[in-house]
Amino acid sequence: MTSAQHPPSPNDRIVRARRDLDKFLRDPDPNPERAEDVAGQLATLPLSEVIDILERSTPVRAALVLRMLPRARAILAFDALDAAHQSDLVGALSDDAVSDYFGAMEPDDRVSLLDELPAEIAQRLLHSLDERDKDTTSLVLGYEKNSIGRHMSPDVPMIRAGQTVGEALASLRAQNDHVETIYTVPVVTSDHRLVGVTSLRTLFTADEDVPVVDLMSEPISATTSAEDEETARRFLALDLLALPVVDDSGRLVGILSNDDAFDIVEDADDEDTARSGAAEPLRQPYLTTPVWRLVRSRVVWLAVLALSGLLTVTVLDTFEDALASAVVLSLFIPLLTGTGGNTGNQAATTITRALALGDVRRRDVFAVMWREARAGLLLGLLLGGTFSLLLGFFYGPQIGLILGLTLLIVCTLAATVGGAMPILAKAIGADPAVFSNPFITTFVDAAGLIIYFLIAKAVLGI
């Protein structure tokens, strides 16, 4: 058999299907017969490929792709998209399709989508649910946005502490169609208070007449009001499959699955990464993000940083005479502000991460400042000493001394302030990533220039 006679490989079929689909979507007047052929190819693609296509398509094209998919695959593909992307698709899909996809989602995923939609559309979708789904979705919707209750599933399996293994398994079989996960099984009292937890595997391998209380372990749980990111990170560190969620009275109201915890942490990391770069997170794939949303994610930060730059201008204006007396000093201003800002942001990023992991708490602020002060001092000695020798060789010993001393003080100050800022932000209820970096940049730039010119005036006698 020649190579031309070999059947196409799965990868070849994927490439051809994507090429044909892209050509069909770009056709301003697509042939209905061609649509049937493309839909057949689309149905053979792995679901991951379909999701990738949706994430790279405009809302109108993505809606067309969803309509060409079998219902079950369309529901799975829609559910896998980010909430902001789903929101954009809602306007391009028919009301029936949106209601269909919305009804098939988990309660916490529905709430994420509702948060992205205009109020009138959100209300219409909520009213399209049957009574049971409406009740569970409304329950999750009632919790604060940054609480773990907002991410839990109220469809939680549970067994009674007074049951035997046989009775518990029968109860779980009856609940199976209405729960998100069944592998972690909370044990409750008659009034739904959480008293223990066991696993489906433990129950399956035990004799049917063994009391459930003999098989349960002490429960690790979270309250509905607990902060979502901190709880999710703690949960993932414990390597559990699911985490029971209780109300303030200890009654079981939901469960947090492992994948939902991963989503919380991923969103938080995306947010921190974006804000450390002076932008807001997009919350959807880049290629499907409207240009106006890209602008909106950046413009506020640019305005804040531009206004903070006025403080630097004020400092330069104050020391205008000193700068005029030794113009060479102006050459090193970018070096000082850049080094100071980077030192402070390094410290802030490290402490923000430590706060998220629970390695550092608010009461540790002085210990953190002391450690960062020492780290900044050593960094200042290394950088200051190196630049003092290097610049002293080219510009004279006085300039080298000025730069060396300034870097020593600025690095120490920047690291100390950078370490303290995330903890201060946490204490006042602000996002450490939002509060820390702009403040550090503004403070270190201004303070660094003041230190620089004061040292220069003392050394040069100007």
UniProtKB/TrEMBL annotation:
InterPro entries hit by this protein: CBS_dom, CBS_dom_sf, Mg_transptr_MgtE_intracell_dom, MgtE_N_sf, MgtE_transporter, SLC41_membr_dom, SLC41_membr_dom_sf
Keyword Cell membrane included in the entry's annotation: yes
Bilayer disposition of the protein: Multi-pass membrane protein
Alphabetical list of Pfam families matching this protein: CBS (PF00571), MgtE (PF01769), MgtE_N (PF03448)
Database matches in SUPFAM superfamilies: CBS-domain pair (SSF54631), MgtE membrane domain-like (SSF161093), MgtE N-terminal domain-like (SSF158791)
Transmembrane region(s): 299-316, 322-341, 375-395, 401-425, 437-460
Ranges where the CBS domain occurs: 152-213, 215-271
Localization in the cell: Cell membrane; Membrane
CDD domains named among the record's database cross-references: CBS_pair_Mg_transporter (cd04606)
Keyword annotations of the record: CBS domain, Cell membrane, Magnesium, Membrane, Metal-binding, Transmembrane, Transmembrane helix, Transport
Protein family (similarity comment): Belongs to the SLC41A transporter family.
Subunit-level organization: Homodimer.
Function: Acts as a magnesium transporter.
PANTHER family found in the cross-reference section: MAGNESIUM TRANSPORTER MGTE
Protein name as annotated: Magnesium transporter MgtE
Lineage, opening ranks: Bacteria, Bacillati, Actinomycetota, Actinomycetes, Mycobacteriales
